[in-house]
Amino acid sequence: MRINKKIEILDSTLREGEQTPGVSFTKSQKIEIVKMLDDFGVDFIELGHPAVSKDIYSTIKLLNSEPLTSEKIVHARLKKSDIDDAVNLGVPWIGLFFGTSKDYLHDKYNLDEKNALEMIKESIEYAKRNGLKIRFTAEDASRTDIDFLIKIGKLAEKAGADRFSLADTVGILYPAKVSELVSALISELKIPLHMHCHNDFGLATANALQALQSGVKCVDVTINGLGERCGLPPLAEVTAALDELFKIDHSWDLKKLKLMSSYIDKITKTDNKYTRPITGKYSFSHKAGLHVNAMLKNQSSYQSMSPKKLARRHRIIIDKYTGRKAIQYRLKHLKIEYDDQLIDNIVLEIKRNPIITNWTDKKIMQLAEKFISAKIESAKSSVL
Ligand code: HCA
Ligand code: CU
User: 23 in the Ramachandran plot: left (φ > 0), alpha (ψ -120 to 50) or beta?
Assistant: First the structure.
């Protein structure tokens, strides 16, 4: 099938890519990556999620001052504070995301459909009133009831979203299903569709290419296919396939692909063999605070299949993307007595050290002991 219309590529190396275990880019590396992506000619660059850490927030500020041809977008929950971050940073596009499947509504947010729709509407309208261009992502779209998904798409469009993105968050689609899903949505909406595919069964590139053939305007990629668990479709494979197999018109500089890929290999402490579907070290690892939080409530929220079937298990990675629930879980496991203050202190300290990409139990224990003895010392001195 030919792809006739002008298609777009969104690179998420700095957001989804940095959610790969072991990956944390420095400010100067992010500047280098953004320049390379811009020279290559991607349409959108997802700069990060400002609320994750101060380090990410300040880096986005710096990246936003780079004069680029690519459009800049930041990731955000349906929270006023996240939307305000995008407004204050002056980034033109916001990528609002919200899990729309029954499990997500129920277990992740504890919301019914009516309240969820209301929240989506209000957040989009608020972002619009504040001058942002909006991509709304239905997270877990591939496990969302199709009629509800259409309802959300229409509501998002009416509230002012400029793009509607379908996320196959746990990577369970295959090309025929992508075609079904996209076809059901495309006839119902006027705004262009995006697709975000995960590689848990090794089908992300095939699914992204199918989405474009079915009429989606933009697909998400990362350099070397980085991302949570098994990552996203790699920039190189998607763009080279579009050029060579689909003969589309484009202005990408394909000669830059090898250089970008080698640069990422050089600066990340990761390897494609770790993100390999099913058997890779990270194929059942979870890093972002939101993911871990949801996993602790319901294991299927970010899993494509039960790892038990493969004699494997879920792992939690702790670094600057971590949240309070992940730390609470580790402390419980380590049998360390905790209160809210201790959790907050640990989370803050971890976020203050973006260079450390794997807080092992030993390191967490040392950190907890440091805060506990400081508390005892200060209690002693206030008694004296
Ligand atoms: C996440 C989940 C996400 C969001 C995609 C999007 C997914 O890590 O927050 O907002 O476009 O796969 O659903 O990456
Ligand atoms: Cu994703």
Answer: beta
Nearest to 28 by CA among 59, 57, 55, 51: 59
Largest distance between two CA atoms of the chain: 80
- In three-state form (DSSP H/G/I as H, E/B as E, the rest C), the secondary structure along 20-55 is CCCCCCCHHHHHHHHHHHHHHCCCEEEEECHHHCHH
Give the pLDDT confidence of 360-373 residue by residue, as tens digits: 999 999 999 999 88
Distances (CA, A) of 202 to 235, 237, 275: 15, 13, 10
Tell me the mean pLDDT in the region 292-305.
Answer: 95
Q: Is 53 in the pocket of ligand 1 (CB under 6 A)?
A: no
- For residues 316 and 311, what is the distance between their CA atoms, to the nearest angstrom? 17
Ligand 2 centroid distance, CA of 368 (Å): 31
In this model, does residue 4 exceed pLDDT 90? no
Residue 200 near ligand 1, beta carbon < 6 Å? no
Residue whose CB lies within 8 A of the most ligand 1 atoms, among 74, 149, 169, 220, for a mutation test: 169
Instruction: State the catalytic residues.
Output: 291
243-298 pLDDT tens trace = 999 999 999 999 999 999 999 999 997 899 999 999 999 999 999 999 999 999 99
pLDDT tier at 44, thresholds 50, 70, 90: very high
